[in-house]
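Exercise 7b. Backbone tokens:
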């Protein structure tokens, strides 16, 4: 079973509280999402493998460490996932970025695919799939399936806010995928919105309704 990691860092909690406030505008919302993504990325990348290699400092030669093995790909679920990319790219500037386009049918609440573009070597990379909201889990589960069909073995899901229903869905459909969230909220309402949540992340990022 994939592990659920819920962050308890005070900086993340503080910034998320501001994002939840309905009076926070799009500019601040976007900036805070980028900052939280960077902070979360620090832990999501904790287990990247390293190897020793020799360098020479201004004082002496030494054995240092560098990241080895598979490279990283960041894959946002459009459109809200785009708000999490820049924070991760600050940590991983050479990572490649794929895109998955899914939207939720307003009647069935089921995800509908409309776009998928991946790096040509995606199967050789560690994938960090990002989306601010993990509500029903349908979009994230379908996105993970799409990535797996391209040969990816190592996938992590990073979200801002999750509902228990979404976590359960991912753990049932993809027990090999670890989930990283800034907060685990109470439930979904009748419209499949996370409660207390923070509203529609895409609309709040881009100032649309």
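Sequence design result:
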């Amino acid at each position: 079973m994939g592990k659920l990691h819920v962050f308890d860092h005070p900086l993340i909690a503080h910034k998320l509280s501001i994002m939840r406030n309905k009076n926070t505008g799009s500019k601040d919302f976007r900036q805070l999402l980028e900052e939280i993504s960077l902070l979360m990325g620090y832990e999501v990348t904790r287990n990247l493998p390293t190897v020793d290699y020799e360098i020479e400092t201004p004082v002496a030669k030494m054995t240092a460490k560098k990241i080895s093995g598979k490279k990283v790909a960041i894959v946002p679920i459009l459109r809200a996932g785009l708000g999490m990319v820049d924070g991760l790219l600050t940590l991983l500037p050479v990572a490649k970025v794929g895109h998955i386009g899914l939207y939720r049918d307003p009647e069935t609440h089921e995800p509908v695919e409309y776009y998928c573009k991946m790096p040509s070597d995606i199967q050789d990379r560690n994938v960090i799939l990002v989306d601010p909201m993990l509500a029903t889990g349908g979009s994230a589960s379908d996105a993970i399936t799409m990535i797996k069909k391209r040969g990816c073995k190592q996938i992590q899901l990073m979200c801002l806010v999750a509902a228990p229903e979404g976590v359960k869905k991912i753990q049932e459909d993809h027990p090999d995928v670890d989930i990283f969230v800034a907060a685990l909220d109470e439930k979904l309402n009748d419209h499949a919105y996370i409660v207390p949540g923070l509203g529609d992340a895409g609309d709040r990022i881009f100032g649309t309704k």
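Instructor comment: The chain has six helices and 13 strands. The chain has a mean pLDDT of 93.
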